[in-house]
Give the backbone structure.
Amino acid sequence: MARPKEFDPEQAMKEAMEAFWERGYHGTSVSDLLSEMNLNRGSLYGTFGDKKSLFLAALAEYERQGRSAVAAILEQPGSAKAALREFVLTAATACTGEGGQRGCLGLKAAMEMAPQDQDVANWVRTITREREQMVAKVVRRGQSAGEINENVDARAVARYLLTSLAGLKVMGVSAPTEREVREVVSLILRVLD
């Protein structure tokens, strides 16, 4: 009979995500993970698999949380243009202060791992396409309602918004002022006019 788990897998995953977020994949050793997750090797490997499997699971959890937050904004009833504006403003706010300096776990993973790791590259590609589809759907809704220029390609607008927000996340690491971020956001939002 298997012994019951003597730890909270969700909390352990949160600790792993924090470790990878802080130090990256290569900068986080298995010993670091064991210490921060408060696990022994058997529990780590038995529950999460090897380090890379844990990293991919942490990325999946990070994306699940992000997708839920984005969907809550984009899928709200009412003005599509207002929803897109709120989406951009919320993302931009996360690019300031301590949170902004911390950066984005997904972008960090993409920069560190995607060039040489096919699994991470596939994850980045899949997440990027899914997020693009979510945003493009709202752009189309705004075009149908006459709020957004119908002569622009919805997917191109979605790509532009997401690329611009990724740039803001990178900019966030350099501790921009709120004014600097607002100036960029003002330009980004012009695509919706």
Summary: The mean pLDDT is 92. The first helix runs from residue 9 to 23.
